[in-house]
Amino acid sequence: MDRRAFVAAALGAGFLPAAARAQEADAAADELIAPILAETGAPALAGAVVTRDGFAWLGAGGVRRAGGTDKVTVEDQWHLGSNTKAMTAALYARLAEQGRAKWGAGVAELFPKLKTDPAWSGATIQQFMAHRAGLSDKGLIDTAWLIAAQTDPRPLPDQRRAFVAKALGAKPGLASGTYEYANADYVLAGAAIERVSGLDWESAIRTELFSPLGIEGAGFGAPDGDQPWGHLNGVAVDPMQLGADNPAAMGPAGTVHMSLEDYARFLRVFLTDGGELLQPSSVATLTTPWGGQPNAYALGWGTLERRQWANGPVLTHSGSNNRWMAVAMVAPARGLAFVTVSNDRAKGEKATQALLLKLIDRFARA
Fold first, then answer.
1. pTM, to two decimals
2. Residue 236: left if φ>0, alpha if ψ -120 to 50, beta else—which one?
3. So what's the pLDDT on residue 31?
4. What is the pLDDT of residue 30?
């Protein structure tokens, strides 16, 4: 395995220039990643340990396409899947701080011109983003919609608004307060963001989240160009192929891709009490589990009650479009975040979990 594909930055060293990272190869990366690739058969695996100041560790190994020889690098971009949800929630929080959006907004305020079933009258934006409003993917994000949405010619805001109109035009599928994880909740949140911002969600998140954080290389859908490809049933999927990712209308629920360095910039928001992006009160809103219940979903984050190695509660989320795998775990009190990614779901799920546990053992339990 090419040792140049691995890098470890000293704790607190910040985000080093690419050339410097490429020169600081670390034998520990061979020790951590190579055996997992051999055991799982995943085409590629990468990960990072993020601190309040930068990286404690950053590594990548494997190939961009199964059967190929083009090796992944620490600069490559990875599809984050549902880990996008925390970004959409943070975007809403930023708009709320600017007075353009409102916490506690109900359906009538979120979509004033939309005809909705009266049963949704008590649902709030927090309930939707916590998967507690009664919305379900059943009957909304099904095979027929997924196929049709891939070739829908309408502008994305129009597609999302039509999706929300269908969702809220029918009665809730679940009792208010019942938890059911649903991508539909975040398509709705994205549509709400589009209404209050006057921008499509993609432009709004670039303007209000990525740009302030210095994230320049992020995109939507499967990464294209000289990048890793996702894999389905062990076969590399051309990013330009129809169906290489979920429909673009699902963007707010899970289509962002970016490098580990860029993702680390976002994770650091939750290690620095908002940093320069959000106020501490907004971070508290985003990360407090629903109803204060241990291990309940917050807004864009799953939560785990106090872990000894974390010195407190942990934020966590995984994401996949069935071709990629991403896992993030954040320990705000400890000032550490962990992220592991793979360009394969089936084999990458086991690989990312194995690397995550190794990194926690090495950097948090040592």
1. 0.93
2. beta
3. 83
4. 76
